[in-house]
Amino acid sequence: MRLIAFVNSNGQPAIGARIDANNLVDLTAAGLPDSLDELLRMGEAGTQAALEAMNRRGVVTPIEGLRYLPPVRQPSKALAIGLNYIDHAAESSFAPPKDPVIFSRYPSSWVAHEQPIVRPRVSTQFDYEAELVAVIGKPGRYIPKASALEHVAGYSVFNEGSIREYQLRTNQWTIGKNFDASGSFGPELVTTDELPAGAKGLRIRCRLNGETMQDADTKDMIFDVATLVAACSEAVELQPGDIIITGTPSGVGLARNPQVWMKAGDVCEIEIEGIGLLRNTVIDGA
After folding, report:
1. Cα–Cα 20 to 30 A to 239, which of 40, 43, 85, 245?
2. DSSP code of 84?
3. CATH code reported for the domain at 78-284
């Protein structure tokens, strides 16, 4: 399934299942929850109910003109991974990490597909980062790598907009990764049955104003999705709706000569094969 969080015609949050390129079935109108967070917490029963509602073709809504919401509204945890592609570690002048580099990202720091991302007024170094997102569907702590993918409900796309001046002020990256509305997440959640195991072998690209800036393959991640799920679960119990933002490949603006920064009026597109295209314009903060 391809699940979309959106605002319905009554101005209320809803979720839908895409049935073709142009339409979705409104699952909320069929009696299911108004957020994917809640649907994921229902486990297999939620998945089955969503499939049945999609097949009944109840309230069909056009996708054109849809106001998207981020796929997951309020994850209990959003864990991001740094330096997870060898070429990106090299361009950033870091040795490839021996263990996953894990930090947090807050829901206030991202917007949905087709919503503007914000370059804050205190920064001129607003960078793009194309990333795969793994969305947790089954809770667990101390999850073995061998069974880690059983805990993943699906995948999505993330633009981890980074405020480089603030990220690089200290060894802790948190502030530079969490400016309000500096990143984006979407457009939809694609369930694992529609993709290769671990979403491995998918082309991942970033285009800025139509120019390709990043072009790689998810198989090139240093730590694959199973490894990341297992590693994160050593510290915290992963819950349905939690997300793991799995790292960006080489080609970021910081590492270019001359450097490239996003500015007001730019259009940034992140595309992952088989998952979708996440598009956002850039605006200046107040």
Report:
1. 85
2. -
3. 3.90.850.10
